Amino acid sequence: MPVRPTIAIAAGGLTCAALAFVGSAWTADTFASKLSERAAAAATEAGAPDVSADFTAINGWPSRHPLLGGGEGLDEQSRANAAQAIAEIPGVGGIRWSDGTMAAESGAVPLKPMHCQEDVEALLRARTVRFEESSSAMDTASRELLDEVEAALRPCLGSIIAITGHTDNSGPEPGNLALSRERANAVRDALISRGIPADGLRAIGHGSSKPVDGLDPADPANRRIEFSVIATEPLAPTPVDTPGAR
């Protein structure tokens, strides 16, 4: 039975699309691999061979925006030098440290609080962003609360918005620290999906190290998300505006 021309054309189109997809994925993998090699060389040349650069996005795809890690034994200036060296590699986009902190937050750039922080804090006085136990999955009420948080943050776009996750002290601290970061990243992703630009959001996790004043560290009320909305002076970004020393 002869194949209809329209079916043949459609099949050919799908085949071409599949080949293009595979080809682009291979190219992206190769590009990210080369950036990783150059980043390792740049960090070593900067005197920080233990600093690593992960060119993988949250969804697992290659990315030109690396997540820096390692170098815990180095002083702040050495880590900053490594970040600067990696940021200057052609093809590298915005970069950040795995703990989410910024150069501005380490005191390199003067800061001033923004009125949006007060608006967000007012929303969070009666309600909190809640997660399923030992999970970074938010409940329905929290997703609705983030709709209001997004609206409160929008007038201050262009500033730095730090999202900080906290836990109580139940369980081992390494797990608490990882969970607090996962929850902060979940809130960051939720705000991005609501239209808040990713380049102004910083997700940080402190585990159980900073309980609410006056509360027992084991109190569940310590499981919380906090927001800090700050403006930098000068407003013009530097090449390493995203990756602070730590």
Radius of gyration, in angstroms, nearest whole number = 21 Å
Estimate the helix proportion, in percent: 40-55%
| Quaternary assembly | single chain
Distance between the termini: 68 Å
Q: Provide the domain count.
A: 2
Strand order of the largest sheet: 4-7-5-6
- Describe the sheet with the most strands: 4 strands, mixed
* CATH fold node name of the largest domain: 60s Ribosomal Protein L30, Chain: A
Shape verdict = globular
User: Which stretches are poorly predicted, pLDDT < 50 over at least 5 residues?
Assistant: 13-26, 102-113, 233-246
In CATH, what is the class of the largest domain? Alpha Beta
The strand count comes to 7
Order of secondary-structure elements: HEEHEEHHEHEE
Strand content: 15-25%
What structural class should be given to the helix and strand makeup? Answer: alpha/beta
CATH architecture level-2 label of the largest domain: 2-Layer Sandwich
Describe what you observe in this structure:
The chain contains five helices and seven strands. Helix 1 packs antiparallel against helix 2. The longest helix has 41 residues, at 5-45. The termini are far apart. It is of the alpha/beta class and 246 residues long. It has two domains: 5-98, no CATH class; 111-232, OmpA-like domain (60s Ribosomal Protein L30, Chain: A, 2-Layer Sandwich). The strands form two sheets. The protein has a four-stranded mixed sheet.
